[in-house]
């Protein structure tokens, strides 16, 4: 592995906003309208507030320079363009410096519902609103720092599951019912409805070690979602030193995704909204 701070290895590229075509901007607008119509009452307040504040529907794919002026003023985070997925240490290093790497490309009009690689819609619509929340902003930075440390324990797979089950596919328990904060859910129409209202998936209370023992699916709707009590509780549960947790996980078996254990807390789906 190259040294993390080697020069010119941050993998960033120019967003080149002027080079997007009208068809690409149209894909953004279509997806934006579709998601923003179904997210009130389904996404958590922090997400909805952030979406509103960042004003991501001025017409087409947001210009990161414009977006960053607002985002940086709120929490010190910026979005940086990358060509696609970047190596783990590069990713962690960006997060540790409050930079969120976002793909600059956008999916084709024929792929509105599904794509495996994160594009600018997933990365910006899904992730940027939560980065306006001060507590979540701290969590993401701490995660990046934790990633740089976990490499030394050879525990990246356990830490990656934490990211997946929270940042990407997390649900939150609120007095009005379950709400979404995970970027992989809010950027997908199918998964937004499925995660909250379908009877099929399991919704289990967040427990750090239990979650780290649970592998995930990258190519289908999630069989299990983990539910946090609040963003503050998530941050507090993760601020402890993970060294001892990694040590205990080294001897523990994985819990296949979909399996429910006797001490798991289960949540009912929200009633189907009309
Ligand atoms: N506390 C973790 C560690 O000791 C770092 C971390 C913080 C990881 C927040 C994820 C989220 O490595
Ligand atoms: Co993502």
- The spatial strand order of the largest sheet comes to 4-3-6-5
Q: Based on helices, strands and strand pairing, what is the structural class? A: alpha/beta
- Percent helix among the residues? 40-55%
Helix and strand sequence: HHHEHEHHHEEHHEHEHH
- Overall residue-averaged pLDDT value: 94
Strand content: 5-15%
Shape: globular
* pLDDT < 50 runs, ≥5 residues: 1-8
Kindly state the number of beta strands. Answer: 6
Question: Helix count?
Answer: 12
Q: Rounded to an integer, what's the Rg over CA atoms?
A: 18 Å
Secondary-structure map:
Layout: H1 22-38, H2 45-54, H3 64-75, E1 78-82, H4 88-96, E2 99-103, H5 120-127, H6 134-153, H7 156-168, E3 171-174, E4 177-180, H8 183-186, H9 189-197, E5 202-205, H10 208-212, E6 224-228, H11 231-238, H12 243-250
Parallel strand pairs: 1-2, 3-6, 5-6
Antiparallel strand pairs: 3-4
Helix pairs in contact: 4-6, 6-7, 6-11
Bound molecules: phenylalanine and cobalt (II) ion.
């Amino acid at each position: 592995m190259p040294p993390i701070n080697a020069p010119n290895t941050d993998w960033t590229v120019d967003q080149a906003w002027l080079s997007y075509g009208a068809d690409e901007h149209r894909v953004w607008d279509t997806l934006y309208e579709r998601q923003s119509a179904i997210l009130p009452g389904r996404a958590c307040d922090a997400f909805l507030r952030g979406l509103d504040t960042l004003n991501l529907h001025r017409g087409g794919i947001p210009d990161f320079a414009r977006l960053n002026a607002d985002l940086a003023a709120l929490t010190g985070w910026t979005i940086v363009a990358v060509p696609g997925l970047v190596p783990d240490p590069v990713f962690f290093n960006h997060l540790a410096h409050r930079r969120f790497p976002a793909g600059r490309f956008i999916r084709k009009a024929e792929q509105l519902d599904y794509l495996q690689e994160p594009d600018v819609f997933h990365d910006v619509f899904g992730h940027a609103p939560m980065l306006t929340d001060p507590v979540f902003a701290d969590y993401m930075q701490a995660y990046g720092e934790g990633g740089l440390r976990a490499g030394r324990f050879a525990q990246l797979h356990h830490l990656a599951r934490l990211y997946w089950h929270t940042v990407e596919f997390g649900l939150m328990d609120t007095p009005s019912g379950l709400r979404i904060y995970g970027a992989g859910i809010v950027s997908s129409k199918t998964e937004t409805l499925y995660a909250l209202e379908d009877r099929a998936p399991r919704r289990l209370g967040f427990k750090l070690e239990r979650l780290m023992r649970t592998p995930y699916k990258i190519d289908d709707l999630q069989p299990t979602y983990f539910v946090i009590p609040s963003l503050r509780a998530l941050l507090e549960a993760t601020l402890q030193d993970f060294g001892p947790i990694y040590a205990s996980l080294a001897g523990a078996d994985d819990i296949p995704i979909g399996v429910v254990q006797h001490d798991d807390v289960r949540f009912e789906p929200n009633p189907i909204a009309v």
